[in-house]
Every structure is written in structure tokens, then in C-alpha cells.
Design goal:
By secondary structure, the protein is mainly α. The protein contains nine helices and two strands. The chain has a two-stranded antiparallel ribbon with strand order 1-2. A hairpin with a 4-residue loop joins strand 1 and strand 2. The chain is extended, with a radius of gyration of 21 Å.
Length: about 170
């Protein structure tokens, strides 16, 4: 395991240095799939879902560059683990979307800052904490339903489901 991680890191550092120097065309050295758009919602939540294209990535291009969005995807578990443990080579600090700059969000942080924020965050989502919120969440749902009941109809996603997590999380803050 350690040998594989070392090889992975050495190869990644070599590619990173070559890309920085402009001598390595890493972005074009794998097959492309016109159905994969890494920053497009339908890629993940469309009728096909992500399973088909993720299988394709694992089989054809486990380190994939989406030329449309200039975003990279890792499709194999061990590659993801190795990358997440090496922020000096693989970093989200500059943002998960190219050319947009750093955004102080959990997804745009590397360890140790990411680990500390995540540790603080999960405290509010334990089973015990969730159970303590039952009456409060039930009250929010009741209020949301009351707000649409007089209309005699509603779009469940728009009128209730979309608002529920926003209100609950807002109240937690």
C-alpha cells in the first residue's frame, strides 16, 4: 500500500511539474466522453444518474479532465484517498471551480483546516442531536404546509422540500 501511494505521488508530482512548465499534455492523454460534464447538474441528477459515466471513467479514464469545465475527476477509491491525503499536490484551496478564486467553504479547504471545520460541523448531526430537533423540524414542516394549504395545491419540491433544509440549517446557524 505504501509503495503504491509513493508511486502515485511521484507520478503526480512529475505531471504537476510538467504541466506547470508546459511540457506535459496531461489534459489530452485520455479518451473523452461527450456525456460527461463535471459541472453540470444533469450529469449527476439526470435520468441516467452518475453510475454509468462513473463506470466508464473507472474503466477508461480513472484520472479524467473535463475540457469543457477545466475540472478533474478521480474515479478510483484509492486514488481519491491518496489525493485527499496529499494537499501539497492535490488542493481544493483555490476552489473546486477553475478561475474563480478561493471561497471559504468546507469543500474549498484542505487539511488541517478542513478536518477541524468538519469535526465541528458533525457535532450537530449526531443521532442524538437529530432526535433533539424532531419537534422543531416538525413545526417547520407544519408551517410550510399551512402556507400552501389555502392554495389547494403545491409543487412539493419548490414549496416544501427546497425550503426545509434552508430553514433548518439557517436556524442552526
Amino acid at each position: 500500500m505504501a509503495e503504491r501511494t509513493t508511486e502515485f505521488l511521484e507520478e503526480s508530482r512529475r505531471k504537476l511539474a510538467a504541466m506547470t512548465e508546459g511540457t506535459f499534455d496531461a489534459k489530452g492523454n485520455h479518451p473523452l466522453n461527450d456525456e460527461i460534464h463535471l459541472l453540470s447538474g444533469p450529469t449527476y441528477g439526470g435520468t441516467k444518474g452518475p453510475h454509468g459515466w462513473m463506470t466508464w471513467l473507472r474503466e477508461n479514464a480513472p484520472v479524467y479532465h473535463d475540457p469543457e469545465s477545466d475540472v478533474w475527476a478521480l474515479a478510483k477509491y484509492q486514488d481519491i484517498v491518496d489525493a485527499s491525503r496529499n494537499p501539497e499536490v492535490f488542493s481544493n484551496h483555490h476552489n473546486i471551480r477553475p478561475k474563480t478564486g478561493h471561497v471559504p467553504m468546507l469543500i474549498s479547504m484542505d487539511d488541517p483546516e478542513h478536518k477541524q471545520r468538519r469535526k465541528n460541523l458533525v457535532r450537530g448531526f449526531t443521532p442524538r442531536q437529530a432526535a433533539l430537533q424532531t419537534d422543531h423540524v416538525r413545526g417547520i414542516v407544519t408551517d410550510l404546509i399551512d402556507a400552501v394549504i389555502d392554495k389547494g395545491e403545491c409543487d412539493f419540491v419548490w414549496d416544501i422540500a427546497a425550503w426545509l433544509p434552508l430553514i433548518v440549517i439557517g436556524d442552526m446557524l
